[in-house]
């Protein structure tokens, strides 16, 4: 069976519908993973890029010593994030941007985080490569995401939901292997989270660049 595909317009349409109710629906379901990721990021230093910032629910939780940039593909979601960010000095800026083509220099951020994003984007491999590219050597890439399972009741439900991907705006069937595509990213942690391990936090370290060989 072929995997249903998404494109950016399908994602925008889905989140245009979700934007008015997101905070009180999926925003609550995602709260545990969001708190877990931000709590860890608050122990770090430097510049943070949040890819898929959505309505900006995470923005007030970042500690003021960090410098945060957020982006999202949905203008409706981003408008809500901009309202939240107005009085947050640690938020340097928000932008509408496609995660598969980030407009930032290589190594621009010390921490790159994408929460509940990878099952939404049309090309997760391209997005992972961009997350790795804009992360500084020695920095971290952090994902919070739904990862599907093949067996059991949950696996059966996920596969039954798979044809609805375009309507839902996300892929119910999404294997962990689909984000293991960047050799420069070393997996440091994979932690299942509430509810029932439906979501997991993956934390990658970007290997420092090797010095050029002396001729």
UniProtKB/TrEMBL annotation:
Assigned keywords, A-Z: Methyltransferase, Transferase
UniProt-listed PANTHER family: METHYLTRANSFERASE, METHYLTRANSFERASE DOMAIN-CONTAINING PROTEIN
InterPro entries hit by this protein: Methyltransf_11 (IPR013216), Methyltransf_Superfamily (IPR050508), SAM-dependent_MTases_sf (IPR029063)
UniProt-listed GO biological process terms: methylation
GO molecular function, one term: S-adenosylmethionine-dependent methyltransferase activity
Protein name per Swiss-Prot or TrEMBL: Phosphatidylethanolamine/phosphatidyl-N-methylethanolamine N-methyltransferase
Gene3D superfamilies the record matches: Vaccinia Virus protein VP39 (3.40.50.150)
Top-rank taxon, per record: Bacteria
Span of domain Methyltransferase type: 49-142
Record carries keyword Methyltransferase: yes
């Amino acid at each position: 069976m072929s995997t249903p595909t998404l494109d950016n317009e399908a994602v925008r349409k889905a989140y245009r519908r979700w934007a008015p109710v997101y905070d009180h629906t999926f925003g609550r379901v995602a709260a545990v993973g969001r708190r877990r990721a931000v709590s860890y990021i608050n122990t770090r230093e430097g510049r943070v890029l949040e890819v898929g910032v959505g309505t900006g629910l995470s923005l007030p939780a970042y500690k003021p010593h960090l410098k945060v940039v957020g982006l999202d593909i949905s203008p409706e979601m981003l408008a809500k994030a901009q309202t939240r960010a107005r009085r947050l000095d640690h938020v340097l800026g928000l932008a509408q941007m496609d995660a598969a083509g980030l407009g930032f220099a290589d190594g621009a951020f010390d921490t790159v985080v994408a929460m509940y994003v990878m099952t939404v984007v049309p090309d997760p491999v391209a997005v992972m490569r961009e997350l790795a590219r804009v992360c500084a050597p020695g920095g971290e890439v952090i994902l919070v995401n739904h990862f599907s399972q093949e067996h059991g009741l949950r696996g059966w439900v996920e596969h039954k939901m798979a044809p609805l991907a375009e309507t839902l705006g996300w892929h119910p069937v999404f294997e962990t292997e689909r984000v293991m595509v960047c050799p420069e990213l070393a997996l440091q942690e994979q932690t299942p989270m509430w509810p029932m391990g439906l979501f997991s936090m993956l934390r990658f370290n970007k290997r420092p660049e090797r010095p050029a060989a002396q001729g």
